[in-house]
Amino acid sequence: MLTDDKLESIVTGTIRLRTKPVDKLVVRSLEDGIRIWEDKDVKSFYYDKSMKWQPKNRTAVFLPCSAWKPYPYSPSHKDGYLKALLPYLRRVDLFVVSEPMTIVPYCYSDEYPIDSYEYDPTKFFMGSLREPLASHALDVFVSRLADWVGKFNARYETRILILPRSWHLRIFHRALERAGISKEHYSTVRLPGRARNNVESLRKSLKLLLEE
Question: Which of 27, 178, 196, 206 is deepest in the core (most CB within 10 A)?
Answer without folding.
Answer: 27
